[in-house]
């Protein structure tokens, strides 16, 4: 058996790196991916990262605890900027989730086989990112235990019902449906892999645990037949769903009359931005994962290059959107729109605006170079820059529009507080914590889908 | 041989183990052509050819999903209508109570939710999962069905099943091993 290639070697010019390191067979694929989960020994770096994440999670709990005690006054929000970090972070996190669905559903429908190595953990990323996102509108109510009757239609004793003409309620339905469907998609993907872990487990307890999770999966042809149908149908359902989610999020803004928000252009602009930041997050997770666990034979340079290309493409759509935003303001006869754009570029928050242009448009142009797309650490840096830029984008959209709307007498400034920062960092910790639990206890790469990619897996005529 | 003898068969079936998917599909096709129907293949990844060979072409998951989508769609829209028109009519900026364009997003999301739940739980129900016990797991090497081996099981409930005869039949496809699967 040839040695499994684990190091990053770029093939000669004109040849693309393989999708799977050479030398694998059905057994080695199972052992390598399942081994991460089944090994008794947890690597030291896992504890280090988990420890930091747990600390940040503790900070999140403290910040939320104090919020419930004192109310949203501890945050920087006030009139005129009634939406601050909470909504910025909500839009940012939910956008990050979108790449996971794009990889698992849309690329499946387009038969992009390179998605196979990265779909599982991208789906996990989606679920965990949507969890962080969902937290923000809930805690933004200040008293989430009262928020149930504002958000969900249930027969409350007051006889009050949600307002279905409002995009904020559409958002509740879109985000909760998105979370549920993503969870189902991820969950059924895991069933056959849990069966593999059950059969590979060395101790009775582990075998029992994965046995329960695998629900008695035995790989029957009739089961696979229905399974594949359901999987494909879920992909078909997720595709319009993911496009609807960020469109509905953008309608939270677009249906308001605030300058800078009131535009029909928002849905596609937001969806492109979401996928842009999502691919950046996929790279931020994939590059350390493949390095720390030595999974360079599964997540090859080809995957990184493709993610880089998709980031470049969606980044260009985002750049076009920024240009159009400025153009609309200039071309419209609306003096408030023009004032808003001028305020963004030269006003008190112009630093944020130009940083955003630098992070989201100028620096990512380095992705045109194959050298950058093929060098993991460079891609990692670009991805970090892009996610910073995407956060700044939401900051600029929300804050600059609210702080100076129509009447100069009602203008004001927004200053975030330490509680805002603690909550944001806390959700990053919570996300990392969930992600590291996931890679320890579930196969982070889809084993059965990788198996079907192997040349020996095909039936010869 | 009598019918009672067939039902009282002490074994679940005969399990043939193959190392290569091509051999498995070949054997499964051969068994189907020989008239065996109560059989199944067990593979570590979905193998379309194997499903076709054992006669599993169509399934009812798409129909169940469609029903789920329609129920979700109707449920979502009716909820909005009942809340906004019947139970809690509220005049918001002079908009009609039945402002149907504003009801579309929630209707869409409910349809997707209904369809997705129906697809997943329909698939699991049709597959009979979760299933705590199944005789095929008694087969000694069956742990490799989720790893790198391909299995064909002809079940004893098949009317054509005769232990010795079926064993000889399977032997002709040169499997790695043939085992009797106890209940």
Task: Please render the helix and strand layout as text.
The complex is a heterodimer of chains A (461) and B (183).
Chain A: H1 26-38, H2 44-70, H3 85-109, H4 119-140, H5 144-151, H6 167-200, H7 204-214, H8 221-254, H9 266-292, H10 301-331, H11 335-346, H12 350-362, H13 370-373, H14 376-403, H15 418-441, H16 447-453
Helix pairs in contact in A: 1-6, 1-16, 2-15, 3-4, 3-8, 3-9, 3-14, 4-6, 4-15, 6-7, 6-8, 8-9, 9-10, 9-14, 10-11, 11-12, 12-14
Chain B: H1 3-7, E1 11-18, H2 21-33, E2 39-42, H3 48-53, H4 61-87, H5 100-126, E3 150-155, H6 163-171, E4 177-182
Antiparallel strand pairs in B: 1-3, 1-4, 2-3
Helix pairs in contact in B: 4-5
Account of the protein in words:
- The complex is a heterodimer of chains A (461) and B (183).
- By secondary structure, chain A is an all-alpha fold.
- Chain A has one domain.
- Chain A is built from 16 helices and no strands.
- In chain A, α4 (119-140) runs antiparallel to α15 (418-441).
- Chain A starts with 25 loop residues before the first helix and ends in an 8-residue tail after the last helix.
- Chain B has 183 residues and is α+β, with helices and mostly antiparallel strands.
- Chain B folds into two domains: 3-58 and 134-182, Alpha-Beta Plaits (2-Layer Sandwich); 61-126, no CATH class.
- Chain B has six helices and four strands.
- A four-stranded antiparallel β-sheet of chain B has the order 2-3-1-4, with helices on one face.
- Chain B starts with a helix and ends with a strand.
- Chains A and B meet through α1, α6, α8 and α16 of A and α2, β2, α3, α4 and α5 of B.
Number of helices of chain B: 6
Low-confidence stretches of chain B: none
Mean of residue pLDDT values of chain A: 91
Q: Tell me which oligomeric state these chains represent.
A: heterodimer
Strand pairing plus helix content of chain B: what structural class?
A: alpha+beta
**What form of chain B results from the Cα inertia axes?**
rod-shaped
CATH architecture call of the largest domain in chain B: 2-Layer Sandwich
């Amino acid at each position: 058996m040839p040695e499994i290639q684990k190091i990053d070697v770029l093939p000669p010019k004109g040849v693309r790196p393989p999708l799977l390191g050479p030398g694998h067979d059905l057994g080695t694929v199972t052992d390598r991916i399942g081994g991460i989960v089944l090994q008794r020994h947890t690597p030291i770096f896992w504890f280090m990262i988990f420890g930091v994440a747990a600390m940040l999670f503790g900070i999140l709990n403290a910040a939320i605890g104090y919020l419930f005690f004192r109310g949203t006054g501890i945050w920087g929000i006030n009139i005129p900027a009634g939406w601050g970090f909470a909504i910025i972070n909500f839009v940012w996190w939910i956008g990050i989730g979108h790449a996971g669905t794009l990889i698992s559903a849309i690329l499946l429908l387009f038969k992009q086989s390179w998605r196979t190595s990265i779909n599982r953990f991208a789906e996990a990323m989606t679920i965990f990112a949507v969890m962080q996102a969902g937290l923000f509108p809930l805690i933004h109510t200040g008293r989430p235990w009262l928020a149930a009757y504002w958000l969900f239609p249930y027969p409350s004793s007051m006889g009050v019902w949600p307002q279905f003409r409002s995009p904020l309620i559409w958002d509740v339905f879109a985000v909760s449906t998105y979370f549920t469907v993503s969870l189902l998609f991820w969950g059924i993907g895991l069933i056959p892999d849990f069966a593999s872990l059950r059969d590979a487990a060395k101790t009775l307890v582990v075998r029992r645990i994965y046995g329960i999770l695998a629900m008695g999966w035995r790989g029957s042809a009739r089961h696979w037949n229905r399974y594949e149908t359901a999987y494909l149908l879920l992909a078909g359902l997720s595709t319009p769903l993911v496009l609807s989610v960020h469109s509905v999020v953008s309608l939270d803004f677009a249906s308001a009359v605030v300058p800078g928000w009131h535009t029909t252009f928002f849905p596609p602009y937001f969806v492109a931005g979401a996928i842009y930041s999502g691919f950046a997050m996929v790279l931020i997770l994939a590059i350390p994962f493949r390095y720390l666990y030595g999974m360079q034979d599964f997540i090859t340079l080809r995957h990184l290059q493709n993610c880089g290309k998709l980031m470049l493409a969606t980044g260009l759509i985002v750049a076009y959107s920024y240009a159009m935003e400025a153009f609309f303001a200039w071309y419209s006869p609306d003096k408030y729109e023009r004032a808003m754009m001028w305020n963004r570029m030269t006003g008190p928050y112009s630093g944020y605006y130009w940083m955003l242009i630098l992070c989201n448009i100028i620096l990512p142009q380095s992705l045109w170079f194959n050298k950058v797309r093929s060098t993991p650490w460079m891609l990692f840096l670009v991805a970090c820059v892009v996610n910073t830029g995407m956060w700044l984008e939401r900051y600029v959209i929300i804050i600059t529009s609210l702080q100076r709307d129509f009447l100069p007498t009602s203008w004001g400034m927004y200053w975030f507080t330490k509680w805002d920062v603690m909550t944001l960092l806390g959700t990053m910790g919570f996300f990392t914590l969930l992600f590291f639990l996931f890679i320890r206890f579930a196969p982070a790469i889809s084993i059965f889908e990788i198996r079907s990619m192997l040349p020996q897996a095909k039936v010869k005529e | 041989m009598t019918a009672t003898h067939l039902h009282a068969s002490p074994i679940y079936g005969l399990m043939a183990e193959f190392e290569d998917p091509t051999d498995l599909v070949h054997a499964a096709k051969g068994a189907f052509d020989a008239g065996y129907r109560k059989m199944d293949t067990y593979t570590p990844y979905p193998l379309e050819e194997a499903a076709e060979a054992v006669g599993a072409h169509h399934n009812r998951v798409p129909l169940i999903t469609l029903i789920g989508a329609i129920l979700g769609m109707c449920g979502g829209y009716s909820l909005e209508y009942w809340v906004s028109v019947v139970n809690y009519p509220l005049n918001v900026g002079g908009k009609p109570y039945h402002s149907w364009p504003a009801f579309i997003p929630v209707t869409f999301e409910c349809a997707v939710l209904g369809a997705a739940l129906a697809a997943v739980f329909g698939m699991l129900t049709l597959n009979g999962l979760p299933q705590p016990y199944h005789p095929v797991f008694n087969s000694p090497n069956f742990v490799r069905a989720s790893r790198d081996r391909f299995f064909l099981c002809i079940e004893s409930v098949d009317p054509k099943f005769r232990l010795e005869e079926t064993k000889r039949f399977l032997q002709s496809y040169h499997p790695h091993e043939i085992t009797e699967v106890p209940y």
